[in-house]
Amino acid sequence: MEPRLRLVAVLGAAVLLVGTVVVLRGSGEEQPALPELPPYRTMTEFRADGVLLPVPGAKPAAPTGLEVRPGSRRLVLSWLGEAAGYEVTWGDDRRTRLVAERSAQLDGLTDGLAYPVEVRAVDAFGQRSDPLGGAGTPRTPAGDWSFADLFDGTEDEVGSRWQLVQRPGCAWTGVAGGRLVVSANCGDRPTGLRARTPLRLRDNGGRVVLETDAPEQRDRLTVDFVPGPVDVVGDRLLPPGAIRVELATEGVLVRHPGGEARLPGVAAPPVGRSQRWEIVFAGGELRVLRDGQVLGATPVARTWRQATVLFGFGGRGSGVTDVVLDLIAFDGEPVQTPPSRVTPRVLVDLPRSAAPKAPEDTRPLRGTEGALLRMAVRSPLDGPEPRLTAFVNGTGYPVRPVFPGLGLTAGSWFPVVAELPAAALAVDAQRYLLDVQLRQEDAVVQLDYGPASLDLRPAAGQAADEPPANRADRKLPRPGPALAEPGAALLDAAGRPVPGGEPVAKGRAVIEIRLDGRAGQLAAGELAGLAGLEVRLDGDRLAVLPTAKDGPGAAGTWRIALNLSSTSAGPHTVEVRAVGTSWDTPTAYAFLPIMVARE
Q1: Whole-number Cα distances in Å, 354 to 41, 351, 359
Q2: How far apart are CA 320 and CA 323, in angstroms?
Q3: Of 331, 303, 340, 323, which Cα lies nearest the Cα of 467?
């Protein structure tokens, strides 16, 4: 039965049972249970007249050369082989994952606990090889850090150490398996993360260490060191004294007050593999290392000893994207860390009236004696230093620049701050948000407002404020495993590609279907199981090819032969549907326009 028809049949049965339940309630008899969907989706082979389907061959050869390397609460696996995909199994509870790369990183493990692992090759029909076994024990290397975060606390505990730098509504953070996940749906705009603890270098320097899956091939990661209370800096013009290290797979760019330098890049690691970046300050030099390998060094003009550290993750245009962080650590002089507490979000906007009033449905923020409000503005034109007033709960407070005398530079962020007393800190009772209306005096052009945040000053002897449990900033929209990315090509009867737009002769033709496992893994980090393929011509079903013989398929290439003798001349459309074994996996589609020649 076709999967969609099977689902309709199940739902139809459910409707009939609902009617039966209504009748039985009236009679007092026992109510039957509604049927449940099977735990996974299966597909039954189907061939229309004239269609030839490929058949499974021998089972794939087992992988070889398994290497298991321990890491902080993780194991990193690599092996050798040539297969469409691989199934990795680990732990006594035998968790599994499908991957296309000859590598896998198993996260969220327990240090000191031995884990058995197995790797099987998976062919295009879901056939499994014999397992290749091994074992490993995760361990976290000891380090003498002035500040370190392994993201192993609750979301609130981790959030108290970091400030998400983005306007509310398009980016979120959350803890998953002992890792910090930064999710963003902000278009091309970068998302930032600020350490609430500053970096203070020793007399002989110091370093910042970052373990993350960024940057991937099409991404970039920036690390900014700014001598002042800022949340965001621009790409065009850095604040006075700031140093930016821009990391990308094609190379490293270091910008500093004395100029800039380019350091060589290294090949991107396999999809989902964390990298360990180190930025080292030693005297007047800056060095960059990746996974212990020195990429290069350059003299820098550093004018500060203590700086705010900002991490920036580039936007990808559309859809939700994730960046995963395993460790961030500072090697420097100890600096007092802010207390563990949830900080309200800040929303900056234009004044909504000539005399701004306090918003309704607010409550005082308990346990604090005041706060520093960090903001940034941007102008489309060069201009003098702006005159600004921040209205918070109906009262205006003076705003001052972080870098006085700098003036506005077109398109660049201009950081400003305001001191707020405890009386100003009344937050939205439901969203746990502080509303700020920023008034611009003697405005020549309208300024753009960037993200903002609070540095709270705790009140001695008072308990920290308790935020609402259902506040909006707890959203973490993480995508699940994705199917391999499908594509299709038209071949003639001899198996030669038919160029796009050219007609194919009536008679035999071949549809070549290819599912790109690496592209699917790049999108989600893990492949969803493949139940099979469905092929349609102008909406009519031609074939159903199951791909889960021993278990879910992963990726592969298939050739399906069909007969176009009775197909009318002119344009037609072949639709390929890749169907997952999980009911929650969205179907993936590929469309192939073809032109049938006249006889």
Answers
A1: 61, 7, 14
A2: 10
A3: 340
Q: Would you state the structure tokens that stand for residue 251, as one six-digit string?
A: 């190379």
Q: Is 122 helix (H, G, I), strand (E, B) or coil?
A: strand
- Cα–Cα distance for residue pair 315/223, rounded to 1 Å: 15
Q: Is 150 left (phi over 0), alpha (psi -120 to 50) or beta?
A: alpha
b (16+ CB within 10 A) / e for 460-480: eeeebbebeeebebbebeeee
- In whole angstroms, what is the distance from residue 533 CA to residue 560 CA? 11
pLDDT by residue for the chain (599 residues), tens only, comes to: 333 333 333 333 333 323 333 333 334 445 555 556 567 889 999 999 999 999 999 999 999 999 999 988 999 999 999 999 999 999 999 999 999 999 999 998 999 999 999 999 999 999 999 999 999 999 988 778 999 999 988 888 888 899 988 866 788 888 887 889 888 887 777 789 999 999 999 999 999 999 998 887 667 899 999 999 999 988 888 999 999 999 987 889 999 998 999 998 777 778 888 999 999 999 899 999 998 899 999 999 999 999 999 999 876 666 677 888 999 999 999 998 887 888 888 989 877 777 777 777 889 999 999 999 999 999 999 989 999 999 999 899 999 999 998 889 998 999 999 999 999 999 988 888 899 999 988 777 888 888 899 999 999 888 888 888 766 555 555 667 899 999 999 999 999 999 988 999 999 999 999 999 998 888 777 899 999 999 999 999 999 999 999 999 999 999 999 999 999 999 999 999 999 999 989 999 999 999 999 87
Say if CB 595 and CB 19 are below 8 A apart: no
Residue 156 has φ and ψ, to the nearest 5°, of: -65, -40
Helix (H, G, I), strand (E, B) or coil at 340: coil
DSSP code string of 51-84: -B-----SPPPPPEEEEEEEETTEEEEEEE---S
What DSSP element (H or E) covers 19?
helix 3-27
Tokens 């709960």 correspond to what residue? Answer: 393
Joined together, the tokens standing for residue 346 give: 């800040």
DSSP string spanning 200-257? Answer: E-BTTBEEEEEEES---TT--EEEEEESSS-S---SS-PPTT-EEEEEETTEEEEEET
Number of helices (H), then strands (E), in the chain: 3, 43
- Which stretches does DSSP call E strand in 72-202? 74-80, 85-90, 95-99, 103-106, 115-122, 132-136, 147-149, 162-165, 171-176, 179-184, 191-195, 199-200
**Residue-by-residue DSSP string for 382-442:** -BSPPEEEEEETTEEEE-EESSTT--B-TTSEEEEEEEEEGGG-EEETTT-EEEEEEEEET
